[in-house]
Design a protein that fits this description.
Elements: H1 2-19, E1 23-29, H2 30-40, E2 44-50, H3 63-71, E3 74-77, H4 87-94, E4 106-108, H5 141-158, H6 163-187, E5 194-196, H7 204-208, E6 212-215, H8 226-236, E7 242-245, H9 252-261, E8 264-267, H10 278-293
Parallel strand pairs: 1-2, 1-3, 3-4, 5-6, 5-7, 7-8
Length: 297
């Protein structure tokens, strides 16, 4: 009797441990971290490599980054070569074969959805180009919903016991996006648009039917020139709009353009806050919608 009691306790302990299983996940950005939290919830332990006030194109590989990658079960990257300058080096130094590209422990968001501007020439004379297409898909809520579904499938492969929970959470996130979309569209109806610094928020604008009025960079990744700023002023003078730029870009050119054009200048990251989950990501899009609504006369 005592022996059966002990066996029963051990069985409960083992089953309880399986139920409480957590996956270690490293996300390259806070947008990817928000998806991981939205889909994985308490079944994942999360580390994020790039805070939203850093330019993810140009991170430096740090020892803490390598430690996180060495211990993780899954890397969730934006992909599309956006992290090409540092992530392959960090993964190589982590010596964790399970997270190499092509393995189940490596997931790229951009590989799950169609990309704009695919097939651009791989010529540095055109600036910071991405021949596979514009990788900044995280600013499109509908594509983020598709990525969440794909992420649920990947998490299910690594933790099959929680497959149903992952799938249901991804479906819940998609429903929340669908419910929010008409409100976003109504809020920015007839908004004249925005002047952006970089081509990093492009995927949001056609989704909301709002025009991008131009870019402060003459080509992606190159700083603005006086000639390019004059060209923008000549083209946009007399029109309505708003200037939006991320916090890690110099405010000098955006401020000059806003003052000359008589527009509002708004500093706004394309990434949600570091602690964001699915709802936090939607609140992030709310902030962008409010900024675009501010472009109305």
């Amino acid at each position: 009797m005592a022996r059966r009691w002990i066996v029963g306790l051990l069985t409960l302990f083992i089953l309880g441990g399986a139920h409480a299983q957590t996956l270690n996940v490293v996300a390259t950005s806070s947008s990817m971290g928000a998806l991981v939290r939205a889909v994985g919830a308490e079944q994942v332990g999360l580390r994020i490599l790039a805070p939203p006030d850093r330019d993810i194109h140009y991170l430096q590989v740090r020892p803490s980054m390598i430690r996180d990658l060495r211990r993780t079960d899954l890397v969730v990257a934006i992909g599309g070569e956006l992290e090409m300058g540092w992530l392959p080096v960090a993964i190589g130094q982590a010596a964790n074969p399970g997270i190499l590209p092509g393995r189940p422990g490596y997931f790229e968001a951009a590989a799950q959805v169609p990309l704009e501007d695919a097939g651009a020439p791989a010529d540095r004379a055109h600036g910071d180009v991405h021949p596979a297409g514009n990788p900044h898909v995280y600013m499109d809520p509908l594509r983020m919903a598709d990525i969440a579904e794909a992420l649920a499938g990947r998490l299910a492969k690594l933790a099959p016991a929680h497959a149903d929970s992952f799938r249901k959470r991804a479906e819940g996130f998609a429903r929340a996006v669908e419910e929010r979309l008409p409100k976003w569209e109504a809020a920015v109806a007839d908004a004249p648009g925005a002047l952006l610094y970089h081509k990093d928020a492009d995927s949001l604008f056609p989704r909301l039917v709002v025009p991008v009025l131009g870019y402060i960079e003459p080509v992606p990744g190159l700083p603005p020139t006086a000639r390019h700023i004059r060209t923008l002023v000549d083209r946009l003078s007399g029109r309505d709009g708003v200037v939006i730029h991320a916090p890690y870009y110099s405010s000098r050119a955006p401020q000059q353009l806003a003052q000359t054009l008589g527009w509002e200048r708004i500093t706004l990251s394309t990434e949600p806050p570091l602690e964001a989950d699915g709802e936090g990501y939607l609140a992030h899009i709310d902030r962008w919608v409010a900024a675009l609504a501010a472009s109305r006369p």
